[in-house]
């Protein structure tokens, strides 16, 4: 984990002061994304079994996914079905055939500042630039190996 | 997924009417649990790298875990480090050495009614009875094979 590497490189004091001087702030948990092999089965589970409100599916061909949201009041689950041959979740579903938790999305108040500071601290991003996400806002993914095995999406609030 | 099996057994009409007549209601997303091999590295990542508020670790020997919470305002991340030889997350970490998303916890207003209705619809629970969870409230886990590959914890709100 990059945190531990930096701890060695900079010492605790530098890390703590970095957190205090941050030019950006972490915000709410926007959603938990769940990869699903069959969107209609997944929508039916959350709607009929758990009684949740579930949105209609929306295709996002530029992201290679079909998406639908499960509304839990304070946060959402984002159901993701692969769309197209180059879908970024196709490999995940090959390893996890029944589906599973894919990533978490946390809001930040200033995405460029967050990306710059995290990169300076050796947290990698999966793409060079932010892209426009499912909510029409800039998003970027952090490398799971630098985030304790968790794929973290940051979204500009 | 059990939803699809029931669809075959009962037809869409019965499932829809079941959801409307529910004796319990799904509530907020309480937390996303993340299994971590080293609690202090994980706490440091969320605190120093992401600037989040992170609680002190608390040992829950009866659950076989050391826990700490990352406060995101609307919801929490629950960091889980294995505690003791029979920890329920030890096997997960053998498969996912760097850590990873372990389960989601959703609140319900009436846990016994939820369990009874879900069991009647062939959604299995991992234990026969609810237990007292990290927040001092009754919790039960649903079988991930019946929930699209996601380990779902229900907590009485």
Task: Explain this structure.
The structure is a homodimer of 157-residue chains. Chain A is of the alpha+beta class. Helix content of chain A is 29%, strand content 32%. Chain A contains four helices and nine strands. Chain A has helices at 2-20, 39-49, 90-95, 111-120; strands spanning 26-35, 53-54, 58-60, 65-71, 76-82, 100-108, 131-132, 138-142, 152-156. In chain A, strands 1, 2, 3, 4, 5, 6, 7, 8 and 9 form a nine-stranded mixed beta sheet that branches. In chain A, strand 3 and strand 4 (65-71) form a beta hairpin. The longest helix of chain A has 19 residues, at 2-20. Chain A starts with a helix and ends with a strand. At the A-B interface, helix 1, strand 1, helix 2 and strand 6 of A face helix 1, strand 1, helix 2 and strand 6 of B.
